[in-house]
């Protein structure tokens, strides 16, 4: 454009003189700049101005089309109403890993039970299931009477796990139970006391029995009693054979039945609370068919918290898929052992030894966490306990301030939206999208969870639902494929769905601030948990998942008979 203006000026110079030619040249340059400005503005509008799902990453990048297939013939799993669970641990402030001390005052022995954010964070779930336990539970002594000396854990390198045995005062047990009742929590308790190394001989149940009797006499409610922590297989610090562990579980069952005689609803017996080793678990389950109600195992598949490639693993679909083998094998053992026990994840922090600051307590960890919730559900896991509610670098709440980390809001949305019945779900278009679907919780339809592990591509998703029923207004079904389809002129085409788009602040995967539909989620000055409000989107529009984002989609117009 500048060249054309120059040629024109030279052409008229001969006829009109130098002054006129300069004026024409300036005019041509101004015109060219104006047209260039208009072009830039148009490109910006095309890129940013069209209405798409909210996102925080820089630039739109590639747009991929995908399709999620949901089969509603039957449910492939069923979760508890209080499937989302979190742990509270015993670690004292002196617990340090890789030069970082990340536990503060979050132990069951010193946790600030007057903190209003902590109270509100638990109450928001109504209820939140909480598992009390962790590595040091095998080193806890329960005070049997108020006159008995009761000393806390003391750091001592010569002892197992570098801490002495510690004592739970009865007064503290009272405080904890009164707090949990006020918060509306559902509590399970893990405990044992085994020596270092290979633990031979029968479990001495006398100390645990005294705590149980005190608990009943005080009117406290415990949903389950769990025996031991990470003593199965090779164990952590100590190990118990499957045969001995089964015998100990039988003892625990007899103790519970005796202490809770006359109760219509008795606590469940749980164990072993360790890492899954196929042969050990098979023998253990075969020998506890009449005494065990819940088989618990732990997930730390990302490796140590000191690892430098945690994010690479979290964003790798193949790595995320690899842990499914454990779920599948345990599910198979349960089906073939004759037991009535169901599976729980009793503890899962992803990266062991307290996690990794600015990874396991930031937005990026929701990719791993929500994928775990979806995967565990699809293998009929009834409850999933996150390590921790607060404490370490993997808490749902910040160790020092109790302010919710991103995973807290991910957990809360799951708890409120994902119903009991799990639906078979497959995604096509890219392997970077993880997809899970459940019947919706307390409302009609289904809820879909979509996780985009791709940082450079947005994904536009269409939903196909096989064997959807007709509640009066539902997708039309193709008689050949039995998949739901929608015609633009149908009544359903005017319906809307609710979407919850989760992104990190400033597009930073290491951010500890999560955005919901582009609004920051923060507690107010009174410590109140913010509302989690969706956006309404027309059924005729595809679901758009921004790069590095998560979306829950509540779809009321897709219904399956299994959801009724």
UniProtKB/TrEMBL annotation:
One Gene Ontology cellular component annotation held by this UniProt entry: extracellular region
InterPro entries hit by this protein: GH, Glyco_hydro_79
Membrane topology category: Peripheral membrane protein
Compartment(s) where it occurs, according to its Swiss-Prot or TrEMBL record: Lysosome membrane; Secreted
Family listed: Belongs to the glycosyl hydrolase 79 family.
Function description: Endoglycosidase which is a cell surface and extracellular matrix-degrading enzyme. Cleaves heparan sulfate proteoglycans (HSPGs) into heparan sulfate side chains and core proteoglycans.
Name of the molecule in the record: Heparanase-like protein 3
Organism (species): Quercus suber (Cork oak)
């Amino acid at each position: 454009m500048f060249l054309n203006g120059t040629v024109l000026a030279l052409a008229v110079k001969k006829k009109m003189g130098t002054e006129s030619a300069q004026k024409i040249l300036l005019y041509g340059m101004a015109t060219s700049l104006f047209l260039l400005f208009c072009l830039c503005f148009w490109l910006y509008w095309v890129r940013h101005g069209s209405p798409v799902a909210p996102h925080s990453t820089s630039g739109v990048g590639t747009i991929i089309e995908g399709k999620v297939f949901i089969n509603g013939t039957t449910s492939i799993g069923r979760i508890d109403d209080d499937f989302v669970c979190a742990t509270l641990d015993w670690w004292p402030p002196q617990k340090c890993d890789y030069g970082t001390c990340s536990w503060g005052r979050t132990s069951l022995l010193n946790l600030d039970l007057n903190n209003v954010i902590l109270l509100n964070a638990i109450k928001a779930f109504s209820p939140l299931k909480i598992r009390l336990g962790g590595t040091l539970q095998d080193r806890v002594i329960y005070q049997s009477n108020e006159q008995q000396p009761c000393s806390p854990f003391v750091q001592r390198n010569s002892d197992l796990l570098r801490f002495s045995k510690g004592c739970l005062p009865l007064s503290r047990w009272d405080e904890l139970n009164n707090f949990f009742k006020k918060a509306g929590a559902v509590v399970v308790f893990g405990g044992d006391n085994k020596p270092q190394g290979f633990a031979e001989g029968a479990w001495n149940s006398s100390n645990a029995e005294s705590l149980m009797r005190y608990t009943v006499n005080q009117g406290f409610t415990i949903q389950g009693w769990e025996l031991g922590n990470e003593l199965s297989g090779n164990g952590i610090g100590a190990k118990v054979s499957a045969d001995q562990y089964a015998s100990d579980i039988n003892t625990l069952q007899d103790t519970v039945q005796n202490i809770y005689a006359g109760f219509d609803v008795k606590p469940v017996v749980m164990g072993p609370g360790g890492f899954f080793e196929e042969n050990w678990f098979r023998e253990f389950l075969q020998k506890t068919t009449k005494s065990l109600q819940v088989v618990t195992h732990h997930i730390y598949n990302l490796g140590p918290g000191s690892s430098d490639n945690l994010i690479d693993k979290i964003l790798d679909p193949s790595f995320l898929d690899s842990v499914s083998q454990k779920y599948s094998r345990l599910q198979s053992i349960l089906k073939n052992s004759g037991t009535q026990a169901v599976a729980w994840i009793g503890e899962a922090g992803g990266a062991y030894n307290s996690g990794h600051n600015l990874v396991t307590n930031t937005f990026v960890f929701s990719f791993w966490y929500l994928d775990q919730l979806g995967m565990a559900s699809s293998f009929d896991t009834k409850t999933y306990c996150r390590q921790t509610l607060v404490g370490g670098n993997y808490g749902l709440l910040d160790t020092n301030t109790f302010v919710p980390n991103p995973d807290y809001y991910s957990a809360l949305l799951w708890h409120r939206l994902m119903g009991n019945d799990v639906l078979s779900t497959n995604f096509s278009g890219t392997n970077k999208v993880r997809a899970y679907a459940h019947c919706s919780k307390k409302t009609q339809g289904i809820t879909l969870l979509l996780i985009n592990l791709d940082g450079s591509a947005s994904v536009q998703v269409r939903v196909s639902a096989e064997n959807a029923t007709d509640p009066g207004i539902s997708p039309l079904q193709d008689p050949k494929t039995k998949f739901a389809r929608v015609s633009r002129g149908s009544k359903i085409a005017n319906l809307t769905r609710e979407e919850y788009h989760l992104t990190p602040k400033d597009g930073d995967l290491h951010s500890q601030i999560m955005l919901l539909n582009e609004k920051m989620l923060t507690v107010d000055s009174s410590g109140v948990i913010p509302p989690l409000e969706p956006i309404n989107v027309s059924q005729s529009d595809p679901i758009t998942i921004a790069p590095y984002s998560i979306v829950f989609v509540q779809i009321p117009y897709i219904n399956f008979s299994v959801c009724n």
